[in-house]
Design a protein that fits this description.
heterodimer, A: 133 residues, two-stranded antiparallel ribbon, 3 helices, B: 495 residues, mainly alpha, Sodium/glucose cotransporter, globular
């Protein structure tokens, strides 16, 4: 009767302290290294773009409400427009930003996986490798 | 009494689901394999269940009653944090195989000292976050049963520690998911009933815009006169802080793959966006029906007090009981997650040998809860959201830069990370302490002390970057970073 986190906390004591994961593959060949660098660069550009979008949304929406006090007196139905923007408008936009990012990031990964060289026989499984399906 | 009964039923239901969940999880020997059988939507429910705390259920409406409609920026920031989690942290963090932030620091920087420094910061953030949860429990128990505040706080500490020590309470993802649903339903349904019973006049009055600062959709802290700066600082703290909260990061290691971790973060945004539509109702109606709370009394009680004030008799009592149970679920799921992350830091990362047993983890849970209870006793008068805002500010000024630079920049060095973490934690806690003990009359200094994220986050990033540039990262650093972004077989789409 232990929680997931408790089991995680307990299982950690079985692992060597210094080295959590096998160190990165020393013998990565030049082609694989270049491909990994390319994937990383693409993901980083995407992350920067998403973060910029998020900053524009949050700082922009609050800036808009600060710059246009008139929105407090424009009713949408019975609710002031500025209140409605604050209470409900940002959540769908946050969802759109996140969903677009996840879709784009998965596409980058799919492209990377298609160009991935086949694993050498006997290579240790990576941390993500699940059980055989 | 109905309130106590509702809280008792909530505890019993959590226990039942916990026992059922244990059986489901025990069907496979290894937890991480078992977790792959949990659907991403359940995982998202569990994360949202752990995340929606007393700050959301009680604190938002309370601070809104006191300071105005702009308080809702806290909710926007709490949700926006998961965009940062999805975009910058979740996938690579899952791929690193690290369970906690100290683990990640160890993987990425290969330094035991950084691990210990991170563990100390985990303690700071978790205690700052636990105090308002315990305060919420003390306040709710006082309202529904009349016991003094300290009795509620001590009882809360006991319930949470025992529930973790016994293990059955939150033994499964399902308990956390169940608590999200409890919070959503027990806050949303009374909100809709109260809106209906307020009548057209009551609703019109609640939506009336007057010329005071209360009606401005910006968050002014301590009447600083700088509402836009204050709003931005709160947004920076909550958005970036969510990406650095140790108990949130820990939860993502229960997803099956990096890809699933990202998708789970997106589902969390849906669940949080839905929940945060409702606390505002209590703030708006509270201003009309319980205005006396704003001048005398504790505004953090408005969510529990309002139903009784608007609807005398049985219906009021029933709604009060629902809301109290929702608040208790918020307290229970969040603080057990916090306490467990805290205990993990105490017993694993800070221990000298590195090898710990069940006994030591249990001792750490008890010690962590005791300190949190002692710190919460004098905190009755402090607003829940102010304290939670500080916890987010510390996380945003420490672990956010560590994770973001560690994941996306190969040049980060152990020295740079240590300097940035130290600068961030000292600046953010120092500013919060200064704002609590000093009395600056007006202006931007007030904002930068009361919610320091606007300057402490850039400071931490700058120090980490600058000090790292002075040294050279180890030659394996690039491969350690690249691996966080390289898909492997488990990430492949099936078929």
């Amino acid at each position: 009767m232990t929680s997931p986190q408790t089991r995680i906390a307990l299982s950690r004591r079985h692992r060597p302290v210094q080295q959590l994961l096998p160190l990165p593959d020393e013998t990565m060949d030049d082609g694989a290294l270049a491909a990994a660098r390319e994937t990383f660069a693409r993901q980083r550009r995407l992350a920067l773009r998403t973060f910029a979008g998020l900053a524009v949304l949050l700082l922009g929406l609050s800036g808009l409400l600060a710059a246009l006090p008139v929105l407090d007196r424009v009713p949408v139905g019975t609710v002031p427009a500025s209140w409605l923007l604050l209470m409900a408008a940002s959540y769908p936009m946050l969802l759109v930003i996140a969903a677009l990012h996840v879709r784009a990031a998965e596409r980058v990964e799919d492209t990377a996986a298609r160009h991935r060289p086949p694993p050498r026989p006997g290579a240790p499984p990576g941390p993500d490798d699940g059980p055989p399906r | 009494m109905t309130g106590l009964l509702a809280i008792g039923l909530l505890l019993a239901a959590s226990m039942l689901i916990g026992v059922y969940g244990v059986r489901a999880a025990r069907s496979t020997p290894d937890f991480l394999v078992a977790s792959q059988e949990v659907k991403p939507t359940w995982n998202a429910l569990a994360i949202a269940g752990e995340y929606v705390s007393a700050a959301s259920v009680l604190g938002l409406a309370g601070l809104m009653l006191k300071h105005g409609i702009g308080t809702l920026w806290y909710a926007v920031g709490f949700t926006a944090g998961y965009v940062v989690v999805a975009a910058l942290v979740a996938g690579p963090m899952r791929r690193s195989g690290a369970y906690t932030v100290p683990d990640f620091a160890d993987y990425r920087l290969g330094s035991q000292r950084i691990r210990k420094l991170c563990a100390v910061i985990v303690l700071v953030i978790m205690w700052l976050y636990l105090i308002p949860q315990f305060k919420g429990a003390g306040v709710v128990l006082h309202l529904v049963s009349g016991t003094p505040y300290w009795v509620g706080v001590v009882l809360a500490g006991l319930v949470v520690s025992v529930s973790i020590l016994a293990g059955g309470m939150r033994s499964a993802t399902y308990v956390q998911g169940f608590h999200y649903l409890v919070k959503l339903v027990f806050i949303a349904v009374p909100a809709l009933v109260l809106l209906a019973s307020a009548g057209p006049d009551g609703r019109a009055e609640a939506l009336h815009v007057d010329l005071t600062a209360w009606s401005r959709p910006l968050l002014d802290l301590d009447n600083s006169g700088e509402p836009l700066l204050a709003t931005w600082s709160v947004l920076i703290a909550t958005t970036l802080g969510a990406a650095g909260l140790p108990h949130v990061i820990m939860r993502f290691s229960t997803t099956a793959t990096a890809r699933a971790a990202r998708r789970v973060a997106v589902w969390v945004i849906v669940l949080l966006g839905l929940f945060y539509l409702f606390p505002a109702v209590y703030g708006l109606l509270g201003r009309v029906f319980t205005p006396e709370l704003a001048t005398e009394g504790d505004t953090d009680t408005v969510t529990v007090v309002l139903p009784g004030a608007m609807l005398p008799g049985t219906w009021g009592a029933v709604l009060t009981a629902l809301v109290a149970a929702g608040a208790f679920a918020a307290f229970l799921s969040t603080s057990s997650g916090l306490l467990l992350a805290l205990a993990g830091g105490l017993s694993h990362d800070l221990s000298r040998t590195g090898a710990t047993g069940v006994g030591r983890l249990r001792l750490a849970v008890a010690a962590g809860a005791l300190v949190a209870v002692l710190l919460s006793l004098p905190a009755a008068a402090v607003d829940i959201n102010v304290l939670v805002g500080w916890a987010f500010a510390v996380a945003a000024s420490t672990f956010c830069p560590l994770l973001v630079l560690g994941i996306w920049w190969r040049g980060l060095t152990a020295a740079g990370a240590a300097a940035g973490l130290a600068a961030g934690v000292c600046a953010s806690t120092g500013a919060a302490l200064a704002s609590a003990v000093t009395d600056v009359p007006h202006g931007w200094v007030v904002v930068l002390l009361a919610q320091p994220a606007a300057w402490t986050v850039p400071l931490a990033f700058a120090v980490m970057y600058g000090v790292s540039r002075l040294g050279t990262p180890p030659e394996w650093a690039e491969r350690a970073v690249l691996r966080l972004h390289t898909p492997d077989s488990a990430d492949q789409p099936r078929g």
